[in-house]
Amino acid sequence: MTRNILTLVVLSALIVAAALLAQAMGVRLYERIATTMFVSMILVLGLQVFMGNSGILSFAHIGFMGVGAYTSAVLSIPERMKGMALPDLYPVLESVQLSPYATIIIGGLVAALVAAALSYPLMRLSDAAAVITSFALLVVLHTVITHWSAITNGPRTLFGLPEATTLWLACGAALLALLGAMLFKESRTGQLLRASRDDEVAAAAIGVNIVQLRWRAFILAALFAGIGGALWGHFVTSFSPRAFYLKETFLILSMLVIGGANTVTGAVIGTLIVTFSFEALRGLEAGINEAGVMADQVIGLTEIVLALAMIAVLSLRPGGLFPTREIGALLTRNRKSEGRAK
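^ that's the sequence the OP posted. Answer follows.
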């Protein structure tokens, strides 16, 4: 218990410190980067809840982010704007205008409901079959979002969302997501799910309902993703279905893989490292192009370096930077080692 509290305190301190640092700099760009990073952290923590505890890679996570973002948008766009933003909207929804703070929660709940309705049969699958079906689910969600013009404005940009997500709202949501991920990990469901991850046959032999456990984790992960998507939507205020597909999936997966999918610490640290690296590489790419160092424009440097970093981590440390132990356990162990040395 002490180790878990220490982990929670250390990771919370890192998150709050990042927010304070961004605010202290007084530069709008840094606040935007930090806000986006906290939204990404919610998504990564959600993915860790399912992938880290079940051991099954899921590509569908970003699809649920889109469900949350569009749900919150439809319910919060001012009535006077809906005629322009969503010309084909169903009449019953035209006069609906709720507080964006309420729709952020509703967006998460709708994403969780969609996950509950679609995913139960998929939870029977393991290994490559589970990965392929999760990718297929992402394709299904993306296709529906792209072509359901009445709700999403089709492939065109949806605009008019009220701006509601601030640096500290995103920071607070990230802290709640951290608490939720830690509580789930130490819950009976989380512990049994990890037991099934380590030995599926043995877990089933003692009566563990693996399908039910995976389903619960998947729904919780979708809730995190839906809330993250809604927060992001009320931060950028306009977006299109392209924001919820492969590029974002790759970024979120790289954060979790580099940090360590099996630990909550890995999810948080991975998000911090990849965000700073991503922004540094984007700055380097822009600097090279502005200086005219190359004859042609440099495009894709950020993605290539991130992909190589992910390959390197998977080759050298397959479990990521924090493969098995949370940071609280590592700090406690070091303290005990120092005590024995004295």
